Automatic annotation (TrEMBL):
Annotated protein name in UniProt: Sucrose porin
Coarse class of the protein's main subcellular location: membrane
Gene Ontology BP terms: monoatomic ion transport; polysaccharide transport
Signal peptide segment: 1-24
PANTHER family: CRYPTIC OUTER MEMBRANE PORIN BGLH-RELATED
Annotated compartments: Cell outer membrane
Molecular function GO terms recorded: carbohydrate transmembrane transporter activity; porin activity
Amino acid sequence: MKPVALFPLAAAVALANISTFAHADNSDLEARIADLEARLAAAEMRDSQPVEPNTTTVNERLDTLERKASSGEGLSLNGYARSGLLIGEDAKSISGGPYVTPAGPLGGAVGRLGNEPDTYVNLMFNLRKQLDSGARSLFRVAIADSVTTSNDWTANESELNVRQVYVELDQLPSFTGAFADAAIWAGKRIDRETFDIHWLDSDVVFLAGTGAGIYDVKPTANWRTNFSVYGRSFSDFPVGDPRNPGSGDTDSLIATSNNYVGNWQFMVNAISAADNDERLTQSSDTAADNGAHGMVAYHGDSFFGLADGNFKAALLYGQGLGAEVKRLGSNGDLLDDAQTARLAVYGTTYLSPTWRIAPALLAETSEDRFSQGDSYRWITANARIANELTRNFEMQYELSYQYMDLDPEGYQNRNAVSGEFAKFTIAPTFKLDVGGFWKRPEVRAFASYTDWSRELNGYDTQDAFGNDNFTGGQWSFGVQAETFF
């Protein structure tokens, strides 16, 4: 805009103002005209200045968006949930769950299909960031809840819990050599390398607590190793005079070295709980204040070398506080002489284009666990089978068997028993798309028949076995939704 063009406009505006506000004094009009002239001059100056190019080009913006998409930057949600009804022959809710048998408190799980009476949810909220340097961060919060009531409002029964809160950093530019791909973390978490037998709802090994560690250190091309220290709390256990006990507490500290060489995994754990040996035990034996634990596992990329699929096999051994071989460092009642060995095996494969199978075996033997001379032996064999009938419908079947020989030596007034448990389930199942054991969500109905040796009803007066309407040889029915994402 040329300067000469501004004067007619300014004059016109000034005349209009004079005509409209004739009653205003001259000084007020002059101030208004001066202000208008200044604003027009500023506009002219802006128009005459060259436009600077945008420093963020379209390509740079696209690169940033593509990087965020490929790295999963931003807020995300994943988790697991199930909810359903489990009804007995008398049209009332009955006891159930993978740990319903007398061997259950020892980790002796049975098949879960058509055997779960609860609503359970575990949700993980993740916030991921990545810098231009490539450095990445993960902040995770996980909440979980479990109830057995069928009501919609369950505040009185809720066990809502913040299960994980931690930060993890990886791809740090200052990490080089063996640490180039390493990730460091701190906070409250479930260890990344935990793995389970889904059909039994049983972890093979479960490491969790509050602490810090480092993943993915690579001393050689074929050797990957993790190191961590976790803390767990032992609280309000009895100490002092048995006739008038006080209350004690301590921390269970677990130092872990977890190593991967090819398909093999070698895990070693040292556990310490200072002053836990002062705990008063029911058997008057000495509780452990330390322990050791080890696991050798193989993660196969075929079905035992026989067909396409996968399998995992693990052998675990623990002593003292390590004799709880699944949930590491979680049981302070273990004796100093406690010993446990466990075997876990499972796999998945297709028998034909429309039939698939997932067999599993879980077995454990332990002695001097809670009372000198006690012994616990159990073994579970399970098979989940599915027949894919349409793209969205399949029939699922599960056969589960457990044998147990339990001699608690009077611990918690339990009695020595031996016997068998068996369950058969048929479950019509709807899915978005069939094609494997890991596709969810699933909506299913089911019918299960369970039976067990009558001797098992006398193991513990506090457990479900032998209670009214739960004595074996009976059918149960229900519906369930299950998903993970």
